[in-house]
Design a protein that fits this description.
The N and C termini lie far apart (about 60 Å). The longest helix is centred in the first third of the chain and has 10 residues. The relative contact order is 0.11. The chain folds into three domains: about 100 residues, Mac-2 Binding Protein (Roll), CATH 3.10.250.10; about 110 residues, SRCR-like domain (Mac-2 Binding Protein); about 100 residues, Roll (Mac-2 Binding Protein). The protein has five helices and 18 strands. With about 350 residues, it is α+β, with helices and mostly antiparallel strands. Strands 1, 2, 3, 4, 5 and 6 form a six-stranded mixed β-sheet that branches. One of its GO terms (biological process) is zymogen activation.
C-alpha cells in the first residue's frame, strides 16, 4: 500500500497517516508503548492532553483505530501514564465509537476545560502498531473531504476528496442520503438533509476521484464506503455530487427534542433563550426533518450545555432555511449563561419529556 503514497518520504509516513485521519494524536508517558499511553493531541502547532471527564471505552476505540492499534482494551483515567505538561486540549469527549478521528467526537471545544493534568486520559489498545499489516482500505480512511462551490457553506456544498495530494470531486451515480450522512458525520456537521446531484453547487474542475459510492450510512468516512477505484469513473463534472447538512443538533433528549446546538467555526455551541419562541423552534425542527414545532423550552430544560454560546436574541419568522439565517446578535455575542440554553420539542419526537 505504501506505493499508493510513494510521494510521502518514508520517515514521515506514519505521521502522514495520523495527520490525515484527523487532528494528529500520539500515545506518550511513563510506561507507554506504541499502542498504550497517555493520549495527546496536536492542535495549533502544540501538543496537549485530553481530560478524563466522561472518558470511556468508546473514546478509546476511536483513538486505537486512529493510531492503527486494533481494538480498545481499556480507557484509563487519572493520569495512569503520568501527568502531561502544557495544554489540555480536549474535555468531555463523547464518542459513539464509530468516528474516524478523536476530533470528530463531541467535545467542549479545543482548549475549553476545567481539568488538571492529574486527570489526563489514556488508552490501552489490543495490538502493536504494524503498518506493514494494515490493509489498503484502512489507509484510505485517511482521505480528507471538504465542501466547496457556489453557495457552499461550512456544512453544505460540492463534495471534494483529497487523494494523493490532489483535490477532486465525487460523481453522483447512485449518490443518496446514506452517502450524505457519512459526509455530514465526517465533517461534524450534524445530520444529512439532502444529497444534491447534477452539480447543484457548481461544477468542479480536474479530477473526479469517486464514482458509484454506496454507503450504508454508518461508516466513519466516505472512503470506507463501497466505491470503484480512485479515479475510475464514467462521469463529467456536470454530475458532481453535493450534500446539505443540518449544522444543528439536539442534545440531552431524543433525535427530535432537546437542547439546540449549532456548529460554527469548527465548534458546537448552544443558543441563548432570550426572545426564544416557537417560530425559532419551527426553523430548527424543519432543519432536522423533525416535523413541526410543538414547543420552545427555555432555561436549559434539557440540561446545561458547555463551551460556546453561539447565538442570542434569535428572531426567526419561521420560514428561514436555517437558524443562522434568522436575525440574531452575531455569532458569539451574548449576555447569557448556560442556564439559559434554548431547546425544542418537535412533532416527530419520541418519548417526549414532561415539560409541564
Amino acid at each position: 500500500f505504501k506505493r499508493l503514497f510513494s510521494y510521502v518520504p518514508e520517515m514521515y509516513f506514519s505521521d502522514f497517516v495520523m495527520i490525515h485521519l484527523g487532528v494528529q494524536i500520539r500515545l506518550a508517558g511513563s510506561g507507554s508503548t506504541q499502542c498504550s499511553g497517555r493520549v495527546e493531541v496536536y492542535y495549533g502547532g502544540v501538543w496537549g492532553t485530553v481530560c478524563d471527564d466522561n472518558w470511556d471505552v468508546n473514546d478509546a476505540k476511536v483513538v486505537c483505530r486512529q493510531v492503527g492499534c486494533g481494538t480498545a482494551l481499556s480507557a484509563l483515567q487519572s493520569a495512569q501514564f503520568g501527568q502531561g505538561t502544557g495544554k489540555i486540549w480536549l474535555d468531555d469527549v463523547a464518542c459513539s465509537g464509530y468516528e474516524g478521528s478523536l476530533s470528530a467526537c463531541q467535545h467542549r471545544g479545543f482548549g475549553t476545560h476545567d481539568c488538571k493534568h492529574s486527570e489526563d486520559a489514556g488508552v490501552v489498545c489490543s495490538g502493536e502498531k504494524n503498518f506493514d499489516s494494515l490493509t489498503v482500505s484502512s489507509i484510505l480512511k485517511s482521505v480528507q473531504i471538504r465542501l466547496a462551490g457556489s453557495g457552499s457553506t461550512q456544512c453544505s456544498g460540492r463534495v471534494e476528496v483529497n487523494y494523493r495530494g490532489v483535490w477532486g470531486t465525487v460523481c453522483d451515480d447512485n449518490w443518496d442520503v446514506n452517502d450524505a450522512k457519512v459526509v455530514c458525520r465526517q465533517l461534524n456537521c450534524g445530520t444529512a438533509l439532502s444529497a444534491p446531484q447534477s452539480a447543484q453547487f457548481g461544477q468542479g474542475t480536474g479530477k473526479i476521484w469517486l464514482d458509484d459510492v454506496a454507503c450504508s450510512g454508518n461508516e466513519g468516512s466516505l472512503s470506507e464506503c463501497q466505491h470503484g477505484e480512485f479515479g475510475t469513473h464514467d462521469c463529467e463534472h456536470s454530475e458532481d455530487a453535493g450534500v446539505v447538512c443540518s449544522g444543528v443538533r439536539l442534545a440531552g433528549s431524543t433525535r427530535c427534542s432537546g437542547r439546540v446546538e449549532i456548529y460554527h467555526n469548527n465548534a458546537w455551541g448552544t443558543v441563548c433563550d432570550d426572545s426564544w419562541d416557537v417560530k425559532d423552534a419551527k426553523v430548527v425542527c424543519k432543519n432536522l426533518n423533525c416535523g413541526t414545532a410543538l414547543s420552545a423550552p427555555q432555561s436549559a430544560l434539557f440540561g446545561q450545555g458547555t463551551g460556546k454560546i453561539w447565538l442570542d436574541e434569535v428572531a426567526c419568522s419561521g420560514s428561514e432555511g436555517s437558524l443562522s439565517a434568522c436575525q440574531h446578535r452575531g455569532f458569539g455575542t451574548h449576555d447569557c449563561k448556560h442556564s439559559e440554553d434554548a431547546g425544542v420539542v418537535c412533532s416527530e419526537a419520541q418519548h417526549l419529556p414532561d415539560i409541564s
